[in-house]
Amino acid sequence: MRIQYALREALRNIARNPLVVLGAILAVLLSLGLTFSTFVFGEVVRKNTQRWADDVRVIAYVSDDLNADQVGTLLATVDNWDEVESAFYFSKSEAQIEALALFEDRPALLRIYTENPNIAPASIRVQPGDPEDYQPIVTRLRGSPGVIEVASAGPGIDAMISLRDGLSWVALAAAIGAGVAAVLLIANTIHMAIFARREEIGIMKLVGAGNWFVRTPFLVEGMIEGLIGAGLAVATVVGVHRLMLSRLSALPEWINIEIANDFFVGRSIIVLIAGVIAGFIGSGLAVSRYLRS
Q1: What is the distance between the alpha carbons of residues 160 and 153, in angstroms, rounded to a whole number?
Q2: 3-state secondary structure the chain
Q3: Which domains does the chain have, with CATH numbers?
Q4: What is the pTM of this model?
Q5: How far apart (Å, rounded) are the C-alpha atoms in residues 205 and 163?
Q6: What pLDDT sits at residue 31?
Q7: What are the residues whose beta carbons fall under 8 Å from the beta carbon of 94, sequence distance 6 or more?
Q8: pLDDT tens track for 46-63
Q9: Which of 18, 67, 257, 260 has its CA 20 to 30 A from that of 4?
Q10: Nearest one of 277, 244, 253, 250 to 41, comparing CA atoms
């Protein structure tokens, strides 16, 4: 019976103060929309940095003096290192083809590789299990027999890792900040609703109504507003993402903004629950402050 009363009173408060309630819902929409957007942005960053990490290679150029058995032994040794995800042999002919494709718009270099087909050295190409493990691999390769030079995109790898970690912290901070803002905005809105009904609440207290009897309808109201705002935030962010997928077909190949539906389902549930919790906490703060006064 108390639940029915609380729900009925909450809906009546919402109908009585549509503009105030709309403000609360918009506050939750903006706050949790930002939170959900940071989730999506963080996932796009995570997926792309992971994809870029998968393309990270450490290249060990090997001497032409190594025979097939020596190359095979070196390759097997490198492939068994704990830091190595995979390693493969890249022959001189493959290196020649790669160089011709790489320098097709640079005539001077293209002529050198065309006139000297054996100039491109064979190599062993190594993919680290973790991009951060590239430096130990480089060090060990430089001490390996038959390796004449080791190349890696060291600074680029370090920059990529820093970018990934930095953006993750920014997304987390933005999500926390938006969540706090949602709680405070709901608290302010509920406080306005309580102020509008202060005389009615005063009469209820005079006739013996307990604090929870007074508090519950406002808690339910806050949770309803939080849920509606969170639902609109989910619909908005998902809709914008779908629109971007259909409109931004000309993005560079190295940027991918596609996200699995499972991600959206899981994060949507989190945002909806967060909306309800934010509404509960915000309304609870407002009611408690009023009752103490």
Answers
A1: 10
A2: CHHHHHHHHHHHHHHHCHHHHHHHHHHHHHHHHHHHHHHHHHHHHHHHHHHHHHCCCEEEEECCCCCHHHHHHHHHHHHCCCCEEEEEEECHHHHHHHHHHHCCCCHHHHHHHHHCCCCCCCEEEEEECCHHHHHHHHHHHHCCCCEEEEEECHHHHHHHHHHHHHHHHHHHHHHHHHHHHHHHHHHHHHHHHHHHCHHHHHHHHHCCCCHHHHHHHHHHHHHHHHHHHHHHHHHHHHHHHHHHHHHCCCCCCCCCCCCCHHHHHHHHHHHHHHHHHHHHHHHHHHHHHHHHC
A3: 2-52+159-292 (no CATH), 57-152 (3.30.70.3040)
A4: 0.62
A5: 57
A6: 79
A7: none
A8: 777 666 666 667 899 999
A9: 18
A10: 244
Sheet holding 123-128, edge to edge: 84-90, 123-128, 58-62, 147-152
The Cα–Cα gap between 80 and 55 comes to 20
The residue whose two tokens read 């393309």 is 55
Tokens standing for 146? 């038959």
Q: Tens digits of per-residue pLDDT, 190-211? A: 777 777 666 666 766 666 666 6
Instruction: Return the structure tokens found at 275.
Output: 């909306």
Q: How far is CA 278 from CA 26, 158, 189, 215, 282, in A?
A: 13, 38, 12, 16, 6
CA–CA separation, 151 and 137 (whole Å) = 11
Residue with tokens 């809709």: 239
209 φ, ψ (degrees, to nearest 5): -65, 135
